[in-house]
Specification:
Bound molecules: flavin-adenine dinucleotide
Mean pLDDT: 92
Radius of gyration: 23 Å
Strand content: 25-35%
Shape: globular
Distance between the termini: 58 Å
Strand order of the largest sheet: 5-6-4-13-14-15-12-16-17
Amino acid sequence: MSKNTVDVVLVGGGIMSATLGTLIKQVQPDWSIEIFESQSEVATESTNAWNNAGTGHAALCELNYMPEAADGSLSPEKAIDINEQFQLSREWWSHLVQQGILGTPSSFINATPHMTFVRGEENVDYLRRRYEILKQEPLFSDMEFSDDPAQIAEWAPVLVDRRGKDEVFAATRSESGTDVDFGAVSHQLFDHLVANGAKLHLGHRIRKVKRVKDGTWNVHVRNRAGHGPSVVNAKFVFVGAGGGALQLLQSSKIPEIRGFGGFPISGKFLKTDNPDIVAHHRAKVYGKAAVGAPPMSVPHLDTRIVDGKESLLFGPYAGFSPNFLKKGSWWDLPGSIRLHNLGPMVKVGLTQWGLEKYLLGELMASREKQMDTLREYMPAARTEDWEMITAGQRVQVMKKDPQKGGILQFGTEVITGGEGSIAGLLGASPGASTAVHAMLGVLRSCFPEQYANEWEQVFNAQIPALVSGGLNTDADAAAASLAETGRVLGLIPEAAPAAVAAEPAQADA
Ligand SMILES: Cc1cc2nc3c(=O)[nH]c(=O)nc-3n(C[C@H](O)[C@H](O)[C@H](O)COP(=O)(O)OP(=O)(O)OC[C@H]3O[C@@H](n4cnc5c(N)ncnc54)[C@H](O)[C@@H]3O)c2cc1C
């Protein structure tokens, strides 16, 4: 058994580890970093372009971030919060493009209008009221609303083509929306980390993480090829193992993980590459979830841009398997049950009838029923143009709740323990889009002194929105941030991306 001591071990090769490792490299280039990924490549699970929907979640189109309260009131707070979190990603990615760490922006982010589409008088009224509140907010100022079929057909013709003449419908549209290939971001960040001294161990599965008396961690590794270290000693461990995070955090025995459980739901999408169909739609169109259905079931018809090629996705449809990872094991769900999370899990099982009904309906749905859901958004859709693909596993967080016993949580949850020497991320949404916000949060909680005394000023210079204490509160700063990141990332049609803009200058010289 060999034993090395390193400053940082990152478990998992997804967007979270890639982001955290790169943030650390920016402020502590001298720290040793080792990354362990169980698969033979990074970004093969939820972060992979075809395992998620690639929406740069900014709450421009997702109604679940601004639901109607029981009294009919609407509050923009959650939507603003999510949008502000996404702006941190946009600003940091812009900085990394300018530093040459991320490559040509179109390899990972592309302007794709975000639309919301609803049908029926009641939903149209709700969408109009939502629009009237949000358009006052600086980060949402480009939002447009229409209930005119001709205007909506101009924005997204497939929504209107062959739709019944007497149907009542409306849409909003934000041009600042994006499609993001989080797998491409991760590959580029890991390449940078490796080029700058980090060690990436592919095909190495972490079995457990154990605390040592001196406060460091022994990370137990199983190497598929049968050689290399079997225990690595680390001062700080980040468990960015996606669906594998719960069991590894449980193995660490930190008290903070007690009471947490996970419930896996598989994501599936209809996909078409038919160029005639793809050419007629350039938007991410989100609808409204069925009554009682969970937020991650919101149907959406999306342009996806992966490796420069456009496709359309529609979904998600849900499936069930007890695996916590796409390449996980059937033992994942039963193996995660402990005495401390059994109560909360049973409580969730006995109370989440809406979720259970939704899942059952999804599992029983025939191919034609699935196509009928698509036709609510694209009436002219033909079965033969679409294939069903299996995307990633979402492991929804279940946790102990003092009042209810146990609750199901649809967001992400960062767990830190061991006096800040270990952290991990559980949960799914809004996920990859807000990785920068989440990983800065990990650094703040785990390294409070270094963060306040040394790192904060570095990050503030790279991500100006961190200084404003809420970008949306300052209309000028919000407009400047959207314009500058739009310019650098090539999201504004007339602006050339930074990496490309450099070439003509050389030619002139
Ligand atoms: C269907 C679906 C749609 C989504 N849509 C969006 C979207 O539109 N926008 C958005 O922002 N987010 C979306 N998300 C969420 C987003 O994909 C995730 O939040 C994000 O990718 C999680 O990244 P991660 O690095 O934590 O995990 P992952 O990408 O899952 O990476 C974890 C890595 O850890 C490895 N690993 C696991 N266990 C071990 C172990 N024991 N040892 C070593 N390695 C291990 C895995 O192989 C994997 O590579 C979606 C997710 C799903 C499933």
